Structure formats: C-alpha cells, structure tokens
C-alpha cells in the first residue's frame, strides 16, 4: 500500500482559493474570511489531524511545524485583543 505524501502542500478547493485571494486583497466578505481561516487552520496547518509518522521523525517534525502555526493562531484568537496592547499603544 502506498503511503500518502504527508509533506505535500494542502490543495484548496476553488472556493477556498478564491476566499484566500479575496482575503489577501482586503476584499473578503465575512463568509469568505471564515472560509479562508478554516482552510488555513485545517488545510495548511493540519489542525485536528495526526502529526505522528512512526519511523519518519523528519515527517513528524515537519507536520509539528505546520500544526504549531494553528496553535499560535488559536492562542491569539482565544484572548481578547487588548491582551496584546503594549504599554502606551493607542488604537
């Protein structure tokens, strides 16, 4: 049985690709923003997917790096924005 290429890029659907392009241009609707973020987290970062690849420590490390990005995003989204205000910073 052939093993899947776990280090290959995650390929978005057409709708996801359009959402990402709209987000990058600052033209994304609320729905497109949600779709883009969901693809970033689940597709690109592999949030919620197994990262352990027994016998392939390099693949496991690579997948852990991808997952780390989603953990950082989740960490920020789990706190009020004011948490990140630096001393003297104005809105």
How does this structure look, described?
- This protein has 91 residues and is mostly helical.
- The protein has one domain (14-81).
- Helix content is 53%, strand content 0%.
- It contains 3 helices and no strands.
- It has helices at residues 14-25, 30-44, 57-77.
- It is flat, with a radius of gyration of 16 Å.
- The model has no long low-confidence stretch (mean pLDDT 95).
Present the secondary structure layout.
Blueprint: H1 14-25, H2 30-44, H3 57-77
Helix pairs in contact: 1-2, 2-3
- Which structural class best describes the helix and strand composition? mainly alpha
Radius of gyration over alpha carbons?
16 Å
Q: Which spans have pLDDT < 50 for at least 5 consecutive residues?
A: none
Percentage of helical residues? 40-55%
Taken together, the total number of domains comes to 1
What order do the helices and strands follow?
A: HHH
Tell me the distance between the termini.
Answer: 56 Å
Please state roughly what percent of the residues sit in beta strands, choosing from under 5%, 5-15%, 15-25%, 25-35%, 35-45% or over 45%: under 5%
| Mass-distribution shape | flat
- Give me the count of strands: 0
**How many separate helices?**
3
> What integer is the average pLDDT?
95
| Main sheet makeup | none
Search tags:
3 helices, mainly alpha, single chain, 53% helix, 91 residues
Give me a quick take on this structure.
This protein is mainly alpha-helical.
């Amino acid at each position: 049985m052939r093993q899947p290429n776990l280090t290959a890029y995650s390929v978005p659907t057409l709708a996801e690709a359009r959402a990402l392009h709209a987000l990058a241009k600052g033209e994304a609707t609320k729905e497109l923003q949600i779709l883009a973020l969901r693809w970033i987290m689940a597709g690109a970062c592999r949030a919620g997917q197994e990262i352990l690849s027994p016998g392939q420590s390099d693949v496991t490390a690579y997948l852990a790096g991808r997952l780390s990005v989603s953990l950082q995003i989740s960490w920020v989204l789990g706190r009020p924005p004011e948490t990140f205000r630096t001393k003297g910073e104005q809105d």
